[in-house]
Amino acid sequence: MNRAEFIGCILGTPIFVQMIQQNPTSEILMGRGSPDLVGESYSLTRAAATAFEQMKAQALQDGISLEVVSSYRSFADQLRIWNRKYEKFKQEGLQGKAIIDAITEYSTLPGTSRHHWGTEVDLIDAAPPKEGDVLLTEKFYAGGPYEKLRLWLEENAHAFGFIKPYTSDPNRKGFAYEPWHYSYAPESIPFLKAFLKIPLEKFGSHAELRGQQHLSLNYLQTYLNDYVLGIAEELR
Ligand SMILES: [Zn+2]
Fold this sequence. Notes:
With 236 residues, this protein is α+β, with helices and mostly antiparallel strands. It has helices spanning 26-29, 46-61, 75-91, 97-103, 147-156, 185-195, 217-228; strands at residues 4-10, 13-18, 37-38, 44-45, 66-70, 120-125, 162-163, 181-184. The strands form 3 sheets. A 4-stranded antiparallel sheet has the order 5-6-8-7. The chain has a two-stranded antiparallel sheet with strand order 1-2. Strands 3-4 form a two-stranded antiparallel ribbon. The protein is globular and about 50 Å long. Bound molecules: zinc ion.
C-alpha cells in the first residue's frame, strides 16, 4: 500500500492518513543517490504522485489542467542552477555576498532544495499559451494566465495534502513568495525533520560550487533559520 493511503471522502473532501514510513537517507534528502520516484510528466515519490493525480483529476473537473513545470531536482540540477545564476549576477556587476543574496531570492543552495525530496511541484495551467518565463508572480494575479489556477489551488490544494511553503506573508523570511510551488505535506513535514539533522558542514563545500568562500558556517546557520525554515507554519 502507498505510504499515504487514500481512504475516502467526507463531504467531497479527500482524507489522507499519514502512514509510518522510513525517512530517506540524508544523501537522498540532499538530492544524491537514487530515490524511489514515479511519474512520466514529473518525478515524485509514490505517495506525492498518487495525491497529485487525485488533485489533477479534481482540477480538470473544475476546468483547470494542472501542469508540472518542475518536481524532483537532483543535487547536480541545483548545482547547475546555482552556478548559472552566480555567473549571471557576477557579470551584472554584483560582488561577494550580494551575489549570494541575489541567487537566494528564488534559488536554493544545492543540497538544501525541497525539490530534492520528490514532494514538491511547481504548477501552471497547461491551457493558456506559454510566453517566456512562466513562473512569474504577476502571471498568477490580476488577469494573468494563471490567476484562475492560483485561486483554485488556494481553495483546494490543502484537501489533497498540498501546501504552499513560500507564502505571501510579509513576516516570512527567506525565499520570495512563490504562488506556483506546492509541497506534499504528509511526506515533506517528516522529511524536513530528518533534513534538519544533517550537519551544516555538509553544505556549501562542493568542489564545483561557485561562491563558496561566502558560505561560512555562520552564514549557513542564518540560511537554515531564514531560508530553509522560512516556510509556512503548517509545514514546519
Ligand atoms: Zn519550486
